[in-house]
Amino acid sequence: MDIFKKLPLEKQAYLETIFQNCSEEVRYYMRLTEAEAEQTLIRAGEKCTNIYIILTGKVTGIEWPMYGHAYPFKDYGAGDFFGEIECFAGLSSYRISVVTITKCEVLIIPAVFYMDWIQTDVDALYLRTQENMRRLITQTADARRYLFVEAKERLMLYLIRKYKQKMPASKTLVLKSGRDQMSDEIGISVRTLNRSIKKLEECGLIQLQKGKVLITEEGFSQMQKDIEDYLNGYTKAKRSKQPNQKEEQICMQEKK
Asked: How confident is the model at residue 68 (pLDDT cuts 50, 70, 90)?
């Protein structure tokens, strides 16, 4: 389908495989639209009426768990689906909000026609179920791991994500977000946030400009390396605590 030509080749081939036998209703009612940056595509709590597929650009998923605070949790891009998991689960309302980071091209398909078709297309259903399971498992694992990440490393993850979202032409990003907003999005107190900012500044990973956080390309690259080492170290430590097969056999014998 020509509509997928702007996707990277791997994702283009994947979506062409998915939609090669789609119904006439899906082909007729699907529509391509453009969305400007910072536009809400999906609002949590609204009725699931459409399936959205990102063709170009970036979007972010936002949770609204309590007290009206927004928690952006992950960024997505070309080839990602939204609204589909809720429909598969039989939910009547969208679970998360989706907001554009950059200008996007989005394919919109009425959910009723999409579900009527995919339930009868075994190959497409299998591929989409496989992808949705992979996505949910990855998100769940990331969320569990995030609970054990220290405040400084949480801030680094946040700053890395913000830099990737903008990718400034000047290679230097000045965050416009205030400390209250940052603490809400990261999930730490303002006091802890301020301590963490000071630590990163002392390490030369960020700079402060009139109280605003400034991230250079060098700082971004170093934070990426540091956080990768930190997370790999956490994974190795967790694995080392798990008993091996021989240890488990010894424990079983001692219990007997």
From this structure: low
- pLDDT digits over 124-177, tens only? 999 999 999 999 998 888 778 777 889 999 999 889 988 988 888 889 999 988
- Cβ pair 60, 99 in contact under 8 A: yes
Residue/partner pairs of 4-11 with CB below 8 Å, 24 or more apart = 4/55, 6/55, 6/56, 6/78, 6/105, 7/55, 7/56, 7/78, 7/79, 8/78, 8/79, 11/78, 11/79
How many angstroms separate the CA atoms of 21 and 23, rounded? 7
